[in-house]
Design brief:
By secondary structure, this protein is an alpha/beta fold. It has ten helices and 18 strands. The strands form four sheets. A six-stranded antiparallel beta barrel has the order 1-2-5-4-3-6. The chain has a five-stranded parallel sheet with strand order 9-8-7-10-11, sandwiched between helices. Strands 13-12-18-14-16 form a five-stranded mixed sheet, covered by helices on one side.
Length: 400
């Protein structure tokens, strides 16, 4: 045909349907994982290693690095005939040996090219099933690697520092299992030559993790770590059990030029924003603008000028119009975009409603929104947002 179009004689969807009946791991289009090993990293952290199918390999290999440190997978798990979807952080990087095996042989590295490993805290229906009940060789559907908790978020500060011939300073702050998305992210940052500082708050001693941080410290002189065991006062920063302004200042970092990655409980993130509000930078910047958050909590306390006022997800603000470009529909919004849409009988994709599962994420074409968990106000331009935790500050156009 003149236009070069070649119709499919046999539809790929049909081939996938037949293939899945012959072998559940086989698919031309659907990424799938097969469980091959479990590793206990601590009393409350389990690593699951999966073999990836051909569709996963082909679709991730379209990018040069396959996936980045800090990203996650959405797993679709069937339990008692009901499908559940949950997000789990990827441990490590492509072609990187599993560090807790203490084996850097070429054969081990080669094996990582065909596997992906996630870390799970055994709690809740799906996590308990994955870590304790799901048999080896079981197959689950998965998304491709997702998430924006990556080094690409350092772009603004990194560009400023590169213009002045300065390396980028990165500060990673985690509590409990919030360390999981940082395991690959920190290694990636060190390989790129960044100055990295880690604060990890935990109630338990984690020998395997401590061994990993010490190995990185021996290898990279620009890596410093502080493990704060909340039951051991000798590990506290500035004599404080939890995160505080005094603790951040005791690190002797140029905070105005430091990108901060934070992941953990609501209490940790609330403490971080409170501390940021108490610290005056020597420039016209605010420290909270340097913070990137990946959280497992619910609504976050929005700290403004040191106050502890809770920013309700349904708080009223000035009313603006949200326009859905693909549907050619619009509605008025004076609360989160998701809630406003539902109030106008407009159905949008969503899941947890707490900013965790990412199912509501979509692309904003234009307009300004505010994240109610971090307080960060967006630019007036194209970007990916979550409708459940963003409110419209101007008229907004979404690619939905």
């Amino acid at each position: 045909m003149a236009n070069g179009y070649r119709p499919e004689i046999v539809q790929r969807a049909f081939v996938d349907f037949i293939g899945s009946r012959l072998h559940p791991f086989w698919s031309l289009t659907t990424p799938k994982l097969r469980l091959i090993a479990r590793y206990t990293l601590s009393n409350d952290l389990i690593a699951l290693q999966f073999e990836t199918n051909r569709a996963f390999k082909q679709q991730t290999s379209k990018t040069s690095n396959d996936w980045q440190g800090g990203q996650y997978l959405d797993l679709r798990v069937c339990i008692d005939g009901v499908y559940h979807q949950r997000s789990y952080s990827i441990v490590g990087l492509t072609n990187q040996p599993l560090w807790w095996l203490d084996d850097t042989s070429d054969s081990n590295t080669t094996g990582q090219r065909n596997t992906v490993t996630i870390a799970i805290k055994p709690q809740g229906l799906v996590s308990n099933y994955l870590t304790k009940q799901m048999p080896l060789a079981q197959v689950v559907d998965t998304s491709l690697p997702l998430g924006h908790f990556t080094l690409e978020q350092t772009s603004v500060i990194a560009k400023e520092n590169l213009d002045n011939n300065k390396p980028t300073s990165l500060l990673f702050i985690a509590s409990g299992s919030g360390i999981t998305p940082m395991l690959g992210l920190i290694t990636q940052a060190l390989r790129k030559g960044h100055h990295v500082t880690l604060l990890h708050y935990s109630r338990n001693v984690l020998p395997k993790l401590e061994h990993q941080w010490q190995q990185l410290n021996d290898t990279y002189p620009d890596f410093t770590y502080h493990l704060i065991h909340t039951e051991d006062s000798t590990t506290y920063l500035a004599g404080k059990r939890y995160l505080s302004a005094e603790g951040l200042l005791s690190l002797n970092l140029s905070l105005a030029d430091t990108q901060i990655f934070a992941c953990g409980s609501q209490a940790l993130l609330t403490g971080l924003y409170k501390a940021a509000a108490e610290i005056t930078l020597p420039t016209d910047k605010q420290l909270r603008d340097n913070i990137i958050v990946e959280d497992f909590g619910t609504a976050l306390t929005d700290v403004d000028n040191g106050s502890n006022q809770v920013f309700d997800k349904t708080v009223s603000v000035e009313e603006h119009t949200v326009y859905l470009r693909s549907r050619q529909r619009q509605f008025s919004s004076n609360t989160t975009i998701l809630v406003a849409a539902e109030s106008s009988d407009v159905r949008l994709a969503h899941g947890c409603r707490q900013g965790i599962c990412q199912l509501c994420r979509c692309n904003k074409i234009s307009g300004v929104v505010k994240n109610i968990q971090t307080g960060k106000v967006s630019d007036d331009g194209y970007e990916s947002i979550q409708t459940c935790i963003n409110i419209a500050m101007t008229d907004v156009v979404l690619d939905i």
